[in-house]
Amino acid sequence: MIPDIEQKSTAHIKAFQEEKLKTTLQYVSEHSPYYKRLFQLHDIAVSEIKSLEDLKRIPPTTKDDLQIHNDDFLCVSKSDIIDYVTTSGTLGDPVTVALTEHDLSRLTYNEAISFECAGVAKDDILQLMTTVDRRFMAGLAYVMGARQLGAGMIRVGAGIPELQWDSILKFKPTYLIAVPSFLLKLIEYAQSNDILLNNSSVKGAICIGEPIRDDHFSLNTLGQKITSDWNIKLYSTYASTEMQTAFTECEQQQGGHVHPELIITEILDDHNNPVPEGQVGELTITTLGIEAMPLIRFKTGDMLRAHYEPCKCGRNTLRLGPISGRKKQMIKYKGTTLFPPAMDNILNHFKYVDSYIIEISKNKIGTDEILIKIASSNASERMLQDIKDHFRAKLRVTPRIEFHDKAHINALKFPKMSRKPILVIDKRNID
User: Fold this and answer.
1) How far apart are CA 136 and CA 145, in angstroms?
2) Distance of CA 174 to CAs 111, 168, 248, 334, Å?
3) Nearest Cα to Cα of residue 266 among 36, 9, 54, 5
4) Same domain, yes or no: 316 and 342
5) Calpha distance 172→188 (Å, rounded)
6) Domain boundary among 294, 324, 354
7) Whose CA is closest to 278, among 320, 325, 217?
8) Tens digits of per-residue pLDDT, 38-89?
9) Of 286, 274, 281, 331, residue with least CA distance to 301
10) Measured between alpha carbons, how far is 360 from 370 in angstroms, rounded to an integer?
């Protein structure tokens, strides 16, 4: 069922969010040490901020702010906190995010309506291929969202294709929740063990952590590789621990829907101004309805486009396009601006690239360098030249490429304490 507010007119949604915003700003001005200081420093009277356009009067909150002043964002006493999670720390030190009972209920609601957006119903069974421990918010959200929806859940956890297939064949899930590149490992295992992929119960996969679509919402190389062998529907979902909110595709698969009762979104340029419609900018969010750690104009670091036209599914909400990349991982290479996902798409084109890692560094003259380390069972000069030619054709530049042992690549890709694979190592800010 689509929440009522998501089917209202855009004018109604805007007015609804502006009322929610007033409540949120009043709350943080009374309870957040960080925002109390910020408002005082910039002489901001929250009572004067009455529209979404007025938000620009508040300086954005950055990831650095959240890392340096982590405890000052807490709006409740520690006795009110019932769950602690941390961010992955991909672009810096992990940040602790605390949740109250109310926040967990909000998180549950968020995931339940996100599942419904992707077509999951009470009669479905989901197989969870991510961890629910290691202070990981998403795993917990998936379990609670499925429970509220009334759908079944098989908590297998990450990895182990043999166990995943044992669960698929035994319990017959209809949806998988997985990192999309892991679905390739499931396909490989099935083909090696005489499992008929398209005779399985699986009809769809909710894909996390890696893009499966290009800017026009067509499946990218990774998505095409999955669906060429396995006739399932892929649904993209995007979220972050700080936002405590997910944006998931509906059956139209034209971007992740924003839930206006949970979050306000802005797409900003380098000067913190809104980008023109259709342009790529940095997703900046204001959370609604969070008790423990609400955020005002938080710059996520993720670069993407917003799509404003109503969706054929009946929702009139904003939709967010595939992530072009993370702002801190933007690369200026030989006169070309690149984000790592563009390189992922090229590497995923090659069947014999078993694993890879992208390393970004600075050279002696201070410009960006790219080294791609590849593990392949079919390594050869011909393959190396084919990859270079493909880079030149698609991106107009050719990074340095080396073949390495798969164990070496996997040691870089799966460091200790990591909850998900690391595909990019950025050495530019390491002293």
Assistant:
1) 15
2) 17, 9, 17, 46
3) 54
4) no
5) 19
6) 324
7) 320
8) 999 999 999 999 999 999 999 999 999 999 999 999 999 999 999 999 886 6
9) 281
10) 5
Domain boundaries, position 343: 330-426
* Rounded Cα distance, 245 and 237, in Å: 10
SS3 content of the chain, % helix, strand, coil (to 5): 35, 25, 40
Task: Say how far apart CA 312 and CA 309 lie, in whole Å.
Answer: 10
Distance CA 429, CA 62 (A): 17
Tell me the pairing of strands 331-333 and 233-240: unpaired
Helix (H) or strand (E) holding 118: none
Confidence check: pLDDT of 13 > 50: yes
196/139 same-domain check: yes
- The number of folded domains in the chain is 2
Q: Does residue 205 sit in the same domain as residue 176?
A: yes
What would the two tokens of residue 327 be?
A: 């702002």
Neighbours of 37 (CB within 10 A): 12
Instruction: Tell whether the model's pLDDT for residue 431 goes beyond 50.
Output: no
CATH assignment of the domain containing 57: 3.40.50.12780
Angular region, 430: left φ>0, alpha ψ -120 to 50, beta rest: beta
For 314, the token pair is 């009946």
Q: Does 205 share its domain with 221?
A: yes
CA separation, residue 196 to residues 63, 193, 201, 243, 322 (Å): 46, 9, 11, 39, 31
pLDDT at 349: 82
Going by C-alpha positions, the residue among 102, 97, 73, 137 that lies closest to residue 291 is: 102
**Distance in angstroms (rounded) separating the CA atoms of residues 383 and 295:** 48
